[in-house]
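Researcher: Next entry: Probable GTP-binding protein EngB (Marinobacter salinexigens).
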Amino acid sequence: MDSDLTQKSISFNSARFLISASRLDECPPDIGAEVAFAGRSNAGKSSALNTITVNGKLARTSKTPGRTRLINFFSLNREGCRLVDLPGYGYAKVSRDMKDDWQQHLGHYLNERRCLKGLVLVMDIRHPLTEFDQMMVDWCEHNHLPLMILATKADKLKFGQAKTAMLGIAKKLKPFKCVEHLIMFSATSKRGLEECQAALTDWLEAAETAEND
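Model: Predicted structure:
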C-alpha cells in the first residue's frame, strides 16, 4: 500500500495558484487529475471556488462579468490533483475577436485535456440552464465526462422557491446520464459546501486510484 495515498487526504484549503494559461500548450503537463469549473459570466463561479477552498482570495471575483479570461490552475496537497477555473462565458465588454479566441482555446482544453476527470458547471439558481449551460451539458454527455451542477446564489431565494427551482432543473437534466451531482449551493450561507467537497474528493481520488492500478 502506498503510504502517501493513505496519509494525505485531499484538503481543499490547501489550494494554491499554480499557473495561468491562455492556450493549451501553456497548461501544466497533462498528467494527474483535474476538475474544471465552468460557468456563465456572473453565475458565481469565482465565489464558489473561493468558498470550496476556504480562501476568499483564491479566484478573483468581480462585479464586472467576464473578468476571468485565462485558464487558471490551482494545485492541491495531493500531488497531481488540481482545480481549474475556466474563462467565464457571456457578456464581457470585450471585442468579438477576443471572445472567439477565448472560446477556441477553451474548446481545445475541454476536447484534448486527458487528465480532466470531471466538470463543475456553475449556474445561477434564478437563471438556470442558459444556452451556454445547455451547451456544456451536451458536451459532457457526448464525451462521457462526469458533471456536477452547482445551482448557486440559493440564498437569494426563499427556501421553497429554491426547492422548486431545483426540481425544475432536475426534471430538465433527467435524460442526461453525465449528471452525477445536482447541488443547491450558496457561497454566503455555505449551503451545499460539504456535499460539493465530498463529490470533488470522490472524483479526484477515484481518478488517482485508477491511474495507480
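Model: Note for the record: The longest strand covers residues 116-124.
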